Amino acid sequence: MSQPARNRPPVILVVDDDRNTRDGLVRALQRQYTIVAAESGERALTILDERPVDVLLSDVRMPGMDGITLLQRALARHPGAIGILLTAYGSVETAVEAMKHGAYDFLMKPVNLDHLELLLQRALRSRDMESENVALREQLEDKFGIENLVGTSPAMQTLFEVIRQAAPTQATVLIQGESGTGKELVAHAIHRLSTRSKAPFVPVHCAALAPTLLESELFGHEKGAFTGATYQRRGRFEMADGGTLFLDEISEIEASAQVKLLRVLEERSFERVGGAQPIEVDIRLVAATNRDLRALVAAGKFREDLFFRLDVVSIPLPPLRDRLEDIPLLCSHFLDEFKRRNNKAIDGMTPDALNLLAAYPWPGNVRELRNTIEKMVVLSRASRLTARDVPANIREKVRVAPAGRSLTVAAGSTLADMERDMILSALRRNNESRTLAARELGISRRTLHRKLREMRDSGAPVGPEPVEDEPGPEEDDKTEQA
After folding, report:
1. Candidate CATH numbers 3.20.20.140, 3.20.20.30, 3.40.50.2300, 2.40.10.350; the one for domain 11-138
2. pTM higher than the cut 0.90
3. Are 75 and 83 in contact (CB under 8 A)?
4. In terms of Cα–Cα distance, which of 280, 290, 279 is closest to 207?
5. DSSP alpha helix (H) spans, 386-459
6. Does residue 470 register a pLDDT over 50?
């Protein structure tokens, strides 16, 4: 049973053994809806298997299969259905029984057509909103799910495991890593995998706020608290109540704000700037920094007691230069993203281009690599990215750099070849389990299925059909790489 299409009226299946009732409902509803009619539950199930239907409108008492049994069987086959039951023998017990089995609502016969029309509009609107909410959640998971943290290196596998262990808890998390390593992606992943995932995720970029504004931003202010405070304002702590507050570059906050932040973490309450009324909040704090907080503590620039409050679960992010083996997968990931976004027909990347990218030290880490691939895709005029597409500053840096760690790509290999080899190797190491292979690769099962399908469609040898296994909670297939 499909969701309602935007370019067609909703389809309603009317089921009633009484011909007069059935025909009357068809005439009343056919101006706004596409109506299909059935005289029995058995006939209704046949129709449900033949065409998409949005609403099942059925009598309860019918010879053979009754309406509640029909509803149960219809929803078992098509969980997206809206079920509305009609009866001339209404009672509270019957209504409760109908609701237990998934009915959206219950109407007495003879049917009040105005009431029915309002009920249909409300039911369809509710279903559409739920579909939109599911789509939005999937988009958020696409953007911020753990799959966006791409990598098969040991460092990334350790990172994935720490995220999965820490996310369901209420512990404060401190993410430490160089600029561009993906600290905010990790914070989003922790929130999305936590019990607070349906509550707000509120980010604060501390380095972007002047010290005089930071306290007001975090804790809010009362009207008249300072010049220009013409109204009461809620702070980020209040906005994040029930959810996750992400403080990026926490090392940049001044001593006065550090004191107040420490108090909030200890007491879970605070006052707005200029206020005296304590405000209690329930938040989980995730903080991030690109500086060494221990060194700042030793230098007297960061409070030691606040550091210990923050450093409950510490997550260090590896720089890209320490996980060169992830560069082919990252290049493939970003190439897919930007060729779709820019509508460019690019088949892949040549080995000489990939070797140049793998030999570069990437001081800007994954963010710099992502921006580089975007630039290469936008400016390329060929069907494959080559060494000529690699920005000149990278080519020059690699040319004059001393020999060091590198990743050599065999001549004749393509990015698609390397990606296929990585996927097939991961499947072999995990006894053809798609769930375990996807986890090792840092991608979702949906992405793995898509890539295997693309490989087969292109005629590439992909080996035996992988084992179909059930995903664990952390491998929910709703997410896919963005």
Report:
1. 3.40.50.2300
2. no
3. yes
4. 290
5. 392-400, 415-429, 434-441, 445-457
6. no
